[in-house]
Design goal:
The complex is a heterotrimer of chains A (281), B (293) and C (367). Chain A has 281 residues and is mostly helical. Chain A is 74% helix and 3% strand. Chain A has 14 helices and 2 strands; from the N terminus they run H-H-H-E-E-H-H-H-H-H-H-H-H-H-H-H. In chain A, helix 5 packs across helix 7 and helix 10 crosses helix 14. Chain B has 293 residues and is mainly alpha-helical. In chain B, helix 3 runs antiparallel to helix 10. By secondary structure, chain C is an alpha+beta fold. Chain C has 2 domains: 230 residues, Rossmann fold; 110 residues, OB fold (Dihydrolipoamide Acetyltransferase, E2P). Helix content of chain C is 23%, strand content 35%. Chain C has a 6-stranded mixed β-sheet, sandwiched between helices. In chain C, helix 2 packs across helix 3. The longest helix of chain C has 18 residues. Chain C is globular, with a radius of gyration of 24 Å. The N and C termini of chain C lie close together (9 Å). Classes of the chains: A mainly alpha (281), B mainly alpha (293), C alpha+beta (367). Chains A and B meet through helix 1, helix 4, helix 5, helix 6 and helix 7 of A and helix 1, helix 3, helix 4, helix 5 and helix 6 of B.
Chain lengths: 281, 293, 367
């Protein structure tokens, strides 16, 4: 029994080490100067510096080759703008549709719902490549609007199917009772149905925010440097000359911090979101 | 009366319109795939029916893509399933400590895959990468991780495992914890051996979760783009030419719209078949979770 | 006419016809009990009346106004749901106030009216609680208060006592008739419990397979059920049904079943047909000594039910008969004699189950 316990503890330690070490190491790296980073063996004790973050946030970089402007903060802003707007739009479109699929049996209803689900599993490039040509014609190429539209591919299926589950779990009688009280359909929807599905809507919103934030390929294809979110921006960073490793690490930390924080906050709903509402945690 | 019948359509119409906007490019892609179409040579554009597909079949590069994609998908999903199941079993009991661990393990999954690649790129940097230094300590020098054809696949698979094992873990953990306790209690009363309990009770009861999670991951893994593109852009050589990576390069580097579209349609056909099986499983789980309301 | 009239209400789910042309009329201040087995379509009918069943067709007339095309919010209906359907995110007070808020009643008047009905229903002390903090009885009263507060013309009560405990059900059975009378609404009260139907209904309509099988005073339904199913459902313990083949006799028929020999007046059409003799457990008498015309039987089991003894007996021929008596009975295993009252005996066709030749015609309930 004791051996089993020790083995279990050992296994868990290994697991934790493997999955958390990269995050910890990058975090440490972001507080080191270039010299400390390049020192081998890696330094466990060092005087932490905020220099990397300051450089990123000020946007000015003093290097041996001269002064360099970096737009990382702009990428961060793009990420915030794109994710927030996409989720807002997806909620606006998805919540009423989820309600329709949950409450009404109507012709084509299930077909539409499953078509939207299938978007989650279609290869994104299949849509993106022709879209990049269309967008040029439509003038949507390299616009926030075009990106937000395409981001619906990630956000809509998620919101639709999670929120639908919450609407289905609430008894329709509660809304009927409200209608009979003399309230219009719209009031029953906004005062009863939506508040009761509130936790589900919040969960779906948070999760689609995380997935929108983490998306890479949409912006890679449809956005120029000016509109790119952190995922694409950080990659461009690596290849830019003169940028120091500590600053890359700091950029990584800033890029993943929002989603990790949201994930910890929303962990109760993560399982449900990851399974598109099929499994509850 | 009319309004009441129209209501569901009114509610789902906006979402539907957005989707139609996305369906159009899908059909365009299918249409492109029937053409010889290179953006750099607009004059040579012609309709060739299934010519592109026939060309693909005889193109050794295509078969490299099929082989690389299959290797990638099967290796990652297989290893992630084993690891995820193992970790889920370790964390099965609902203790405070286990809950904290399971939440902590979710962090890699919440990291953008492209950024995760970047992190591992830094860690495997030949000059200062901590992993390069670590394996040098155990006597492996000049291991070149993603930049050598021999170890590139190993490296991206490692990143994929780091990012996506938590996905398997949480789904299987949720499944394990939702199993009814009676069969396990009965088995313990009967003094059934632990491995027997695992293979005859746990695994069969967990099967719906395993199948759903595996198909889900398989669907994503066969389309993997972010990790590989961010790590090596498909190289070195064509050692990591997954479907989407090759289609991306065909399109943007060689402006070959036709081949790129054909490649995507093939991938779509594969995922479509897979997603059919998946959705059936997924619906079954969903029904169990939401009852028959 | 003031009250509710519905005509030719039909509802169909896929191929399943749930309601096949329902006509009913309920006067203001009257309570009609809608009785029927589960799945008969009682709830669907209520929802159709309230305007909640978009698939339902037919006419709904409230106080002379055809509201068939109106939405549920403009029919001036009050409804209590089987599962209470309280708004979980609102306090009991706001739950009850909801119909008044929809009608734009002033805040002061809302307070006064909610307070008054809460005192009447003895829930004034829990008005600030959310529904999850209420007991089942308090939930049920809150739902009832919400249905009543706006003084609707039509009151639809969907088995409101289904989910409350026996004691409360007993209390409410005593209280409800007064409440309903005072509300002066036309009330449809759905139940599966025949005692509730007897206690509350001015009239009873039995819904069976999507049609009204019978409609009339509660006693009439009990005494002369339209068919075997109604007889079986409307009564507790259920009626004894014995196969028989009546023979012609002077002025009526002779029936021999399970040892009973009964002479019944009229009903000659039953002669020579396969029939079922229906004997209500309450109409059988039981004696511990031989009596003329009595059928010998053994007591198998005894269960007390509502101050009566329900006795399961088995005749020498092996027929099992349930007898319900108000007096004490010998213990199980004793030998007893059973006597049937020919005036209370019912005869049904064996195949169709229809009651044969009731002395009075069975009335309908349409307008």
């Amino acid at each position: 029994m004791a051996i089993a316990k020790i083995l279990r503890a050992l296994a868990l330690s290994l697991v934790l080490a493997f999955f958390l070490f990269p995050i910890v190491w990058i975090l440490l790296m972001s507080f080191q100067t270039n010299e400390e980073i390049l020192r081998l063996p890696p330094s466990t004790f060092f005087r932490p510096t905020l220099g990397n973050y300051i450089a990123l946030i000020s946007g000015h970089l003093e290097t041996a080759a001269g002064e360099l402007d970096i737009t990382f903060l702009h990428n961060l802003w793009n990420s915030i703008l794109l994710s927030t707007s996409s989720v807002a739009l997806a909620l606006l479109l998805g919540v009423p549709a989820a309600y329709a699929f949950a409450r009404f049996r109507f012709r084509l209803g299930e077909d539409i719902a499953f078509t939207m689900l299938s978007f989650r599993f279609a290869p994104p490039l299949l849509v993106l490549l022709p879209l990049s040509l269309y967008f040029q014609d439509l003038g949507l190429n390299d616009t926030y609007l075009g990106l937000i539209w395409v981001y619906q591919l990630i956000c809509l299926p998620l919101i639709l199917w999670i929120v639908r589950g919450y609407f289905e779990d609430a008894s329709p009688d509660i809304e009927y009772a409200y209608r009979i009280d003399g309230h219009s359909w719209w009031r029953a929807f906004t005062r009863i149905a939506v508040p009761l599905a509130g936790p589900g809507i919040a969960a779906a919103g948070l999760l689609s925010f995380i997935f929108a934030w983490n998306n890479f390929v949409f912006a890679l294809i449809l956005a120029s440097a000016d509109k790119q979110p952190v995922t694409v921006g950080a990659l461009a960073f690596v290849t830019a000359s003169g940028i120091q490793y500590g600053q890359i690490a700091a950029a990584i930390v800033l890029s993943i911090l929002p989603t990790l924080a949201l994930a910890l906050y929303a962990q109760r709903w993560l399982v449900e979101g990851l399974s598109l509402g099929a499994v509850k945690g | 009366m009319f309004l009441r019948r129209a209501l569901p359509y009114v509610l789902s119409l906006p979402a539907l319109l957005v989707c139609i906007g996305i369906l159009v490019p899908f059909f365009t892609a299918a249409y492109y795939s029937l053409q010889r179409y290179n953006l750099a040579m607009p004059g040579s554009r012609e309709f060739v029916w299934f010519g592109q597909y026939l060309d693909l079949l005889s193109d050794p590069d295509f078969w490299v893509t099929v082989r690389v994609s299959a290797t990638y998908a099967i290796t990652t999903v297989g290893l992630e399933l084993l690891l995820g199941l193992g970790i889920a079993l370790l964390l099965h009991e609902r203790t405070r400590f286990n809950n904290i661990v399971s939440i902590a393990l979710l962090l890699p999954l919440m990291t953008a895959p492209a950024i995760a690649s970047l992190m591992w790129k830094l860690m495997t940097n030949p000059n200062f990468g901590v992993l390069s230094w670590l394996i040098a300590q155990v006597g492996i020098h000049d291991f070149r991780w993603a930049s050598a054809p021999g170890s590139a696949m190993f490296t991206v698979v490692l990143v994929d495992i780091w990012v996506y094992t938590p996905f398997m873990m949480v789904l299987l953990l949720a499944g394990l914890r939702s199993l009814p306790p009676q069969p396990f209690e009965a088995a313990r009363l009967d003094g059934v051996a632990p491995h027997f309990v695992f293979f005859r009770i746990t695994l069969p009861m967990l099967a719906p979760y395993i199948v759903t999670a595996t198909l889900f991951r398989l669907l994503d893994s066969i389309q993997q783009f972010d990790i590989v593109y961010a790590m090596t852009q498909g190289g070195p050589g064509d050692s990591l030419m997954l479907f989407q990576v090759r289609a991306y390069l065909d399109f943007f580097q060689y402006t070959n719209v036709g081949t790129s579209a054909a490649l995507m349609v093939v991938l779509w056909a594969i995922t479509y078949l897979l997603s059919h099986v998946f959705i059936k499983q997924w619906l079954r789980l969903r029904e169990r979770t939401h009852g028959n309301s | 006419m003031s009250g509710l009239a519905i005509a030719d209400i039909r509802a169909q789910f896929g191929r399943n016809e749930v309601l096949r042309g329902i006509d009913l009329a309920v006067a203001a201040g009257e309570t009609l009990v809608l009785f029927g087995p589960s799945g008969a379509g009682k709830t669907v009918l209520l929802r159709a009346i309230a305007g909640l069943e978009p698939g339902a067709t037919g006419r709904v007339v409230i106080d002379g106004e055809d509201v068939s095309t109106h939405g549920p919010e403009s029919r001036n209906v009050g409804m209590a749901f089987q599962n209470f359907a309280l708004y979980p995110h609102l306090s009991a007070r706001e739950n009850i106030a909801s119909p008044l808020r929809a009608r734009g009643v002033s805040a002061g008047e809302i307070d006064a009216r909610v307070g008054a009905i809460a005192r009447l229903l003895r829930i004034a002390h829990v008005l600030s609680h959310p529904p999850r903090a209420l007991s089942n009885g308090q939930k049920q009263r809150t739902a009832l208060a919400r249905a009543l507060i706006a003084e609707p013309r039509i009151l639809l009560l969907d088995d409101p006592l289904r989910n409350v405990d026996a004691k409360l059900r007993y209390e409410m059975r005593l209280e409800l008739p007064r409440l309903l009378r005072e509300s002066n609404a036309a009330t449809i009260y759905v139940t599966q419990d025949y005692r509730e139907a007897m206690a509350l209904g001015d009239r009873v309509a039995v819904l069976q397979n999507g049609v009204i099988a019978q409609c009339g005073a509660a006693d009439a339904v009990y005494d002369l059920p339209a068919n075997r199913e109604v007889a079986r459902l409307f009564g507790d313990p259920p009626i004894n049904l014995l196969p028989c083949r009546p023979q012609a006799a002077a002025g009526g028929i002779d029936i021999e079943a399970a040892g009973f020999r009964l002479h019944l007046g009229a009903r000659e059409e039953a002669t020579g047909k396969d029939c079922l003799l229906g004997l209500r457990p309450e109409t059988l008498s039981l004696s511990d000594h031989p009596i003329a015309g009595g059928v010998a039987a053994d007591i198998v089991a005894i269960t007390p039910l509502h101050e009566r003894q329900v006795v399961l007996t088995r005749t020498a021929a092996g027929e099992e008969l349930v007898v319900s008596v108000a007096h004490d009975v010998p213990k199980a295993g004793s030998h007893v004699w059973l006597l049937a009252d020919p005036r209370a005996a019912l005869v049904f066709e064996a195949s169709a189950g229809k009651l044969i030749q009731a002395p009075m015609a069975i009335r309908g309930c349409a307008a």
